[in-house]
Amino acid sequence: MANARTQPGETVRESYSARSQEYADLFGSMTSTHPSDRALVRSWAAALTGPVLDAGCGPGQWTDFLAACGVAASGIDLVPEFVERARVRYPRLSFDVGDFEAVDAAAESLGGVLSWYSLVHHSPQDIQIPLAEFARVIRPGGGLLVGFFEGATVDTFDHAVTTAHRWPVAELSEQLVTAGFEVTETHTRTGSGYRPHGAITARRQITR
User: Fold this and answer.
1) Residue 26 pLDDT > 90, yes or no?
2) CA 44, CA 111: separation in Å to the nearest integer?
3) What would the DSSP string read from start to end of 1-17?
4) pTM
5) How far apart are CA 58 and CA 42, in angstroms?
C-alpha cells in the first residue's frame, strides 16, 4: 500500500487497485490478524496522547481497531478502492486518499502513526522519505509502530501484489533512529503458513 521511488506510487496503487476485492476478502477484517499483533497495537495505542494516523490503512480494519482502543484515529491510503471501502464500512471514521511521503498534517500534530506493513514496498534507498515525514508530523514523545516482513538480510522478494522488501530488525531499527526516533521495543514471530514477521515500536525523540 505504500509507494516508493523504485516502485513508483502509480505502480503500487494500480497493483493494489486491481486486486482490492481479493485483498479485502483475505485481509480486510481483524479476524485475519494475529492475536499477538492485536495485543501489541492495543498496548501501544494505550500510551498515546493525541490523534493517530493509520498510514496505509487499506480497507480500514486497523483504523477501526485503534478507535476502539480509545484514540482519535484516521486513515490514509494510496488506493482509492480501499479508502472507499473503509468509508462505507466505518462511516464514523475519517479516511482519505493520501501519500505518506507527504502527509497532509501539520508538524508535530499527531500523537502517533501506525505503519502496519505499509513500508514494505519502499526500497532501502528510499525508506527514509516516509520515515522523515512520520518524524515531522509526530509530536516529540509521540509513538510510531511499524509492522514489516522480517529477514536475516535486507532483500527483495516477489510479493503477491508487487515487489516488497524484508528487513532485519536491527537494520530497520537503525533507519528509525536516523529518522529521529528512539526504539522502545522490537518483536519477531515465525510460524507455519506466513512469512517471518517483525514489529518495532519507537518514540519520537525529544530535542533539547
Assistant:
1) no
2) 11
3) ----SSS-HHHHHHHHH
4) 0.87
5) 19
